Amino acid sequence: MPLRLASPEVADADRVLRRELYFYTLYRLLEATMLVFVVFGPVVDYLSVPRHPGLAAVLASGYLLAALLLFVFGRRGELRTQALVGVSIDLLFGILAIHALPVAGTGISLMLMFNIGAAALLLRTRYGLGIVLIAVAGLVGEFSWSVMAGEPDTRSLVEPVMFAIGYLAIATLTSVLGREMRESYNLAERRGAETAHLVEVNELIIRRLRTGVLLVDGDNHVRLANEAATLLLGDAGDGRRDLAIALPELSRRLAQWRSDGRSDENPLQIAPDQPEVVPRFTRLLAGSDQTLVFLDDTSLASRKAESLTLATLGRFSASLAHEIRNPLAAISYSVQLLEESHDIRPADRRLLEIIRQQGTRMNGIVENVLGLARREPAKPEHVELVSFTRHFIDDYQAGHPIELDSLRVTAGQPNIAVLVDPRQLHQVLTVLVHNALLYGRIPGEPARITVNVQIDKQLMPMVEVLDRGPGIPDRIAQQLFRPFFTTSSHGTGLGLYIARELCRANQAMLDFVPLPGGGGCFRIRFSAPTQPTKPPPTQERRGRTV
After folding, report:
1. In angstroms, rounded to a whole number, what is the distance separating the alpha carbons of residues 534 and 518?
2. Beta 406-411 vs 520-525: how paired, if at all?
3. First and final CA of the chain: distance in angstroms?
4. What's the whole-number average pLDDT of the chain?
5. pLDDT tens-digit profile of 51-80?
6. C-beta of residue 278 within 8 angstroms of C-beta of residue 333
7. Which of 281, 353, 412, 49 lies closest to 57, judged by CA?
8. Four-point Cα dihedral 391, 393, 394, 399, nearest 10
9. Most exposed: 72, 346, 523, 527, by fewest CB within 10 Å?
């Protein structure tokens, strides 16, 4: 799409002609001074007596005064008005001076040629030609006046005609020159505005690039850095312009590249809390000592690889699930039949139990992969969170004996309504509670799990699954929701990832919040606000000991 920039105003173009107007007023002052010198100076004794001495004295004095005023105020006001007023005064005093001083008439006519040319340069073409016509009419009129009045005059009619042709030629030439100057200035202004706009666009693009960009000079000083580079540098480059001080390893790689042209492609950890980057180097210009350093964030490439992996897995899992689940169902059915047989020895029943457990685990893995592949849209309904959570706990305990562990529900209010898909919320809570029972326990002690339903300070409903286990280290907490990340040899690393995706599908947020007193909290924060009601006494339900 072409750039649409405002054209420079005429006043902007006229500003460049102010210098010409200044020289024009200075030349007028010179003309007036010469006219005073001719009328009142010592050369008057060598000239013939003026035709009208009194008129000549008045004209010389008045023209000098007008020239002084125009010189003093020539830089104020609108340029065309100044030029039009000035040339009008020049023609008035000049033509009257020709009549009063016939002996200097030819010289005055020649000097007026510059005035007319300068006015045509500063004015529009039609005004310049109008000034020429007025000057020609003035010369011819003055000559006719002298002839009809019978005053002696040595000039012939050819002289004003020749001056008229000269005035017309010089006015046409300078008018074309003035128009070309204005057009050139306007074009230069437009090109300058477009260039400045493109520079701003380029700076914005570089500043918003997700790849960090540094400009380093020959003395290893950082001259420029875009937003991505500033974020990647963090505290390492705060207040420091020397690359060797801010980032010694990057400075070492830059020096190696400058010496032998080889670049180290291994990821570089700039700071402990920053992602790894791969630096790339290139010279700003051929033969220049300034170097552009591009810092490619490896986490971006990792996320792209994850997206590609998940997309491939989604397409592949649909066909793979059918091939796995059919023989898995046959194995599970056969195990059930064998368990009902009375001919199986007790020692062999343990093997059957192992087969059944592993088959259940394999079926769970297939379900997780299918859940990742299906990405079914949410079907939200109005759900009352407190009663839903209690029913969920009852169902979970019925299907998953928790033995000595404790599983309870607490509610800050009796009724908290949200808009959510109940089936997907059930799946999310199953993942969170199951993980809490597995990992949220002190070794050798029973797990204590609490599902808390309440409204936060922003009146947003939320469900928290809390445990009193050893907690999760920060380096692991940062990767909890990444697909395929797991610290267990029996996990797939898809449970929390799918749980967060299901929450996002319901416009909710799932986050891990460490607890100050130990343990962890997985918090689901819903987007639909509810009106707070009076909080009832805390209710809880403990798990049964089996």
Report:
1. 30
2. unpaired
3. 73
4. 78
5. 778 888 888 888 888 888 888 887 677 777
6. no
7. 49
8. 130
9. 346
Q: How far apart are CA 310 and CA 497, in angstroms?
A: 11
CA 154 to chain centre: 78
Between CA 311 and CA 365 the distance in angstroms is: 17
Supply the pTM of this predicted model.
0.43
364, 303, 397: which is closest to 488 by C-alpha? 364
Top pLDDT among 541 and 31 is at 31
Report residue 158 as tokens.
């050819």
- Tens of pLDDT, residue by residue over 206-259, are 666 777 788 888 888 887 777 777 776 665 555 557 788 778 888 888 888 888
Q: Name the burial class of residue 16, with classes exposed (0-12), middle (13-18) and buried (19+) by CB atoms within 10 angstroms of its CB.
A: middle
CA distances for 412 relative to 451, 533, 536, angstroms: 11, 9, 7
| Cβ–Cβ < 8 Å for 121, 174 | yes
- The predicted-structure confidence for 262-320, as pLDDT tens digits, reads as follows 877 777 777 666 677 888 888 877 777 888 888 877 776 666 766 676 666 666 666 76
- Is the pLDDT assigned to residue 388 strictly greater than 90? yes
User: Would you state the torsion angle of the CA atoms of residues 242, 244, 250, 254, taken in this order, to the nearest 10 degrees?
Assistant: 90
CA angle 418, 424, 425 (to 5 degrees): 45
pLDDT digits (tens, 9 = 90+) for 344-386: 777 777 788 888 777 776 776 676 566 656 666 778 889 999 9
Look at residue 472 in the predicted model and tell me its pLDDT.
Answer: 84
> Which tokens in the block code for residue 373?
């592949």
pLDDT of residue 525: 92
pLDDT for 524 equals 93
Q: Do 506 and 361 touch, CB atoms closer than 8 A?
A: no
Can you tell me which residue has the tokens 């505290």? 235
Cα(55)–Cα(372) distance, integer angstroms: 106
Distance CA 173, CA 18 (A): 19
Q: Burial, 186: exposed, middle or buried (Cβ in 10 Å; 0-12, 13-18, 19+)?
A: middle
Give the span between the Cα atoms of 202 and 208, in whole angstroms. Answer: 10
Question: Which tokens in the block code for residue 86?
Answer: 């000035």
Query: Phi and psi dihedrals of 389, rounded to 5?
Result: -65, -40
Angle between helices 422-439 and 495-505 (to 10 degrees): 150
Q: What is the CA 142 to chain-centroid distance, rounded? A: 70
Hey, how many other C-beta atoms are within 10 angstroms of the C-beta on 432? Answer: 25
CB 469 within 8 A of CB 519: yes
Residue type, 540: E
Of 294, 288, 228, the closest CA to residue 258 belongs to 288
Tell me: the pLDDT tens digits for 449-464?
999 999 888 888 999 9
